[in-house]
């Protein structure tokens, strides 16, 4: 509705408000095409450097009575180790997966938070390539440990739960293969991408729209512009919540898939 | 009025997950109200269910931009 008003307003004074498009997310800083260094890749490199510095700085002189930094790191580590890895994978062999899950969680969390932290303000995961790369790691890991544990033939055999009537087995097998090999990785990557993309798009819309209404609008629209900025503020808080939640969900689902490959019965 | 009909598809695909997520969290709140000490266990199950139910809406969002 407000955009409709904006559109008619725009034709009156010649300019016009451009709603944010998907093109906002491709921002090459150097070069172009497949070898471009984009804003997202700079943010990713920055996040890796930041995480490495933080983890080394807070754990190098680890003390029994922790400093504030060490307390944060230990809290996060304990949350992933006990709250995700041990609860989902089980106490027998969760320890080998803790490094993978922890680094995945921290990497996604920092990259997501970049979406609202100036001066970066660009969620890396809103470029589909980054979630796909993370998903490929999870995909390879959970299939590899499953096949290694029981062998290739038994792995496919295990996809179908036991005790089903014979005539229904091919259909269930087909469904399970689609779930394991297509739906799971696809949703894992798309969920992270979609949430970050949609959230950033919303923020862009409210902030640029508010700015346009404040500057170019008449008196009534100026008030609407102020309302739009309030919405932008509220949505930023909401976005921070979503960013934590998505990092947690990605790690949780990765742990669930790994646990599924380790379990005796599916 | 101009626009993209794929966005309507996204609106439709958001109905199912909306209802589903509501049901999941209703059950979660019910469970915690009846048995507050089970909160920790229920929380991860609820968020897992939320993530799975959300998938359809995410598909809708992505397809809305794909079929532009």
**N-to-C order of helices and strands of chain A:** HEEHHHHHHH
Instruction: Give the amount of beta strand of chain B, in percent.
Output: under 5%
Mean pLDDT of chain A: 86
Number of helices of chain B: 3
CATH topology of chain B: F1FO ATP Synthase
- Compute the separation of the termini of chain B in Å: 17 Å
Number of domains of chain A: 1
Helix content of chain B: over 70%
Please give the number of β-strands of chain A.
2
Secondary-structure-based class of chain B equals: mainly alpha
Low-confidence stretches of chain B: none
What Rg of chain A, in angstroms, do the CA atoms define? 23 Å
How is the biggest beta sheet of chain B arranged?
none
Radius of gyration of chain B: 16 Å
Could you characterize the architecture of this molecule?
- The complex is a heterodimer of chains A (266) and B (68).
- Chain A has 266 residues and is an all-alpha fold.
- Chain A contains 8 helices and 2 strands.
- Chain B is mostly helical.
- The mean pLDDT of chain B is 87.
- Chain B has one domain: Up-down Bundle (F1FO ATP Synthase).
- Helix content of chain B is 82%, strand content 0%.
- The longest helix of chain B has 28 residues.
- The interface between A and B is medium-sized, with 20 and 15 residues.
How would the blueprint of this fold be written?
The complex is a heterodimer of chains A (266) and B (68).
Chain A: H1 2-13, E1 28-30, E2 37-38, H2 39-59, H3 68-89, H4 98-113, H5 129-150, H6 152-158, H7 169-216, H8 219-262
Helix pairs in contact in A: 2-4, 3-4, 3-8, 4-8, 5-6, 5-7, 5-8, 7-8
Chain B: H1 6-13, H2 15-34, H3 39-66
Helix pairs in contact in B: 1-3, 2-3
